[in-house]
Amino acid sequence: MDSHGDTSTTVEGRLASAFGLAGDEWLRHANPKSVYSRFTVLPLFVVAVWSRVWLGWWALLPVAATVAWTYLNPRLFDEPASFDSWAAKGVLGERIWADRESFGLDRTRRRQLHAITAVQVVGVPPFLWGLYTLAPWVTATGLVTMVLAKVWFLDRMAHLFDDYRDTDAVRAWLA
Fold this sequence. Notes:
Elements: H1 11-18, H2 24-29, H3 32-38, H4 41-50, H5 52-55, H6 60-72, H7 86-98, H8 100-103, H9 107-122, H10 124-133, H11 136-164, H12 168-174
Helix pairs in contact: 1-7, 4-6, 7-11, 9-11, 10-11
């Protein structure tokens, strides 16, 4: 693989590989329908986990369906007609971020993006605790923290894509 394509050197790159995001799969996931429908994953997970109250062990079925939706979502949509939307730029910026070693991102930008990721992580404990204890406000606090930080992160990714859009590596992805 060329120097701009091996994303396995970062945590994000390994996660992308685990979800099958490589090559053209990134382009399919850049479809705004994929990006915006992906925001349903965490709310669906909340409902699936909370369904244990009325479904008991059968709640594993909606949990499994949510996991399947998470996996299938990037594969269900065609490549977008244009890469000019905020959503498409955000996903392709994530691809650059996953391969940041090859792109030589500066230290300031890396710190900013790591800080936004840390905000996302801050939402995880209340989210999980709220799911465990069935506490709506705790769950919602974690959920809102994670989602708003993800939107902020995607916005930064869109800017990252704009900054690197004219590089040979990115043009090769879009060809």
